[in-house]
C-alpha cells in the first residue's frame, strides 16, 4: 500500500478512494495544512460512530477526538501535570524497569523482543507515571490489550462489525472506569508528587479536571501511548537489522540513537494515516471536497515527500533536520513525544550495553499487527550474542 500511495502522490496528491468513499491526502504540505486547521478538518467523529454508553464515560476526557474550545481546555489542564519535567523525572525508573525486563530473559540466546520488552515497557511506564500499585499492574496490561482488541477492524468494516467489537470490550471498560475512579478518589484524599495527584490539582482560570475527564485521559494514555511505543521499539529493531552499518555505528557511539530513532519514525510511522472530518466544503489539491467527508491524512507518504526530504526513500540514520509528521502536527501534536523518545532511547541503550550483537531471527517468522490499525510487529524473535 505504501508503494501505491507513493506512486500516486506524484500524480494525484489528493484523491477520492472509491473503495470506501474516503479522501486520501498524500503530500507533506497538504497533510500539514489539514492537521493545522481544526476548524475545517475536525477530529470529532462522534456523529458517525455508534454510541456505546460505556465509552461515552471515557469520551469526556479523550481530547484526541475533540475540537477547540473543549480540546484546548482539557489539553491545557493535562499539560500542566504531564510536563516534560514530570517525564524527565521518570528516567531512572524507566532504566530500572527496562533492566528488570531484560534480566528476565538474561542468558537466553533467542527471545521475542516484543513479549520481553517492547510490549510491557510502555504499559509499565504509564502505570508507574500514574502511581498504580505494583500488584495492580496486570490489570493495566489486561485493559491495554482490550482497548486495542479492535485491531481486527479495517477501514472497510461495517457499522455492525464495529458495534460488535465495542460490545465485546464493554465489560472491561466498565471495570477500568470503576478502578480508575477509585484510584483518583484515593489521590484526591492522599496527595502525592505523582501524575494522578498533579492532574487532581491542575487548574486553569478556575477550571479543573473532573474525575471522569481524568479517567478518559488515562484511557487515552493507554490507547495513544502503549502500542505506538511498542511499534517504535519493534520498527527500530527491524530497521537496524536491515541496516547493519547503522547498527554498528550506534553501537560504537550510542549518542546517535535519538537521531536514528527519528529516522525510524519517519520511515515506519506507527500510524500510516490520521483521520479528519470536513466541517464545510473545501478545496484541497485542486479538488472540491464536500462537507462531512472523511479525510485520511497520509503521514507515511508525506514522510517520504521528496520536496521536503532529500533522498526520501533512503534510511539515513543521521538525518537532521527531520520534519516527519509521525507525531502529528498542530493542536493535537502528540503530548507523549518526550516520553516515547525517552523510552526508545533507553531501550536501545540497554540493548546495546547488554549485547554485542542483536539480529532478527531468520528461522522464525516475524508477525505483524493489522496494518490498517498500526504499523508494528506483534512477534519479533531476535538472536543475541
Ligand atoms: C496524540 C503518535 C506515543 C500520548 C498523538 C498523535 C499522533 C501520535 C500522530 C496525533 C493524532 C491526531 O492528530 O489525530 C504517537 C507515536 C508515539 C506516541 C508515533 C510513539 C512512537 C505517545 C505516548 C503517549 C502519547 C508514549 C503518552 C503516554 C498522546 C496523547 C495525544 C497523542 C495524550 C493526544 C494529543 C491531543 O489530542 O492534543 N500521538 N504517539 N503518545 N499522543 Fe502520541
Q: Any guess at the CATH architecture?
A: Orthogonal Bundle
Q: How many domains would you count in the coordinates?
A: 1
How many H/I helical runs?
17
Low-confidence stretches: none
Instruction: Report the CATH topology name.
Output: Cytochrome p450
CA-atom Rg in angstroms? 21 Å
Ions, cofactors and other ligands present here are: protoporphyrin IX containing FE
Q: Strand order, biggest sheet?
A: 1-2-10-7-3
Q: Strand share of the residues?
A: 5-15%
User: Percent helix among the residues?
Assistant: 40-55%
Briefly summarize what is shown.
With 385 residues, the protein is α+β, with helices and mostly antiparallel strands. Helix content is 50%, strand content 12%.
Structure description:
The protein is α+β, with helices and mostly antiparallel strands and 385 residues long. 50% of the residues lie in helices and 12% in strands. The strands form five sheets. A five-stranded mixed beta sheet has the order 1-2-10-7-3. The longest helix has 31 residues, at 159-189. The protein is globular and about 60 Å long. The structure holds protoporphyrin IX containing FE (HEM). Protoporphyrin IX containing FE is lined by residues 35, 43, 63-64, 75, 126, 220-221, 224-225, 228-229, 232, 270-271, 274, 326-328, 332, 334-336, 339-340.
Task: Give the topology.
Elements: H1 2-11, E1 14-17, E2 22-25, H2 28-35, E3 41-42, H3 53-59, H4 70-81, H5 84-88, H6 91-103, E4 110-112, H7 113-118, H8 120-130, H9 137-147, H10 159-189, H11 195-201, E5 203-204, E6 207-208, H12 211-225, H13 227-242, H14 244-252, H15 257-267, E7 273-278, E8 282-284, E9 287-289, E10 294-298, H16 299-302, H17 337-354, E11 358-360, E12 367-368, E13 377-379, E14 381-384
Parallel strand pairs: 2-10
Antiparallel strand pairs: 1-2, 3-7, 4-14, 5-6, 7-10, 8-9, 11-14, 12-13
Helix pairs in contact: 3-10, 4-11, 6-8, 6-17, 8-9, 8-12, 9-10, 10-11, 10-12, 13-15, 13-17
Bound molecules: protoporphyrin IX containing FE.
